[in-house]
Amino acid sequence: MSQQETLIEFPSDFPIKIMGEARDDFAQGILIVIRQHAPDYDGSNMEMRPSSKGTYLSLTCTVRATSKDQLDNLYRDLSSHPWVKVVL
Questions:
Q1: CA geometry: angle at 32 spanning 28 and 34, to 5°?
Q2: Distance from C-alpha of 78 to C-alpha of 70, rounded to nearest angstrom
Q3: Per CATH, domain 12-87 is 1.10.10.10
């Protein structure tokens, strides 16, 4: 499979799960990163779930993916964000 091949058909709605330490501005900070790559993303659709002890926060954001490059860049920026522990 070449670098540009993917099993995803574009455009498509693509869920991304982001986990990080629970902090008041976590969701807003992640929203800023997502909108750099998906400007039309509606933050009101963000699903938030705290961990059982409230130490971590999981966000599920379903973006309208338009290309493999867009998703790769979004994953790269989210993964390198200092507040983020895991991106799935």
A1: 110
A2: 12
A3: no
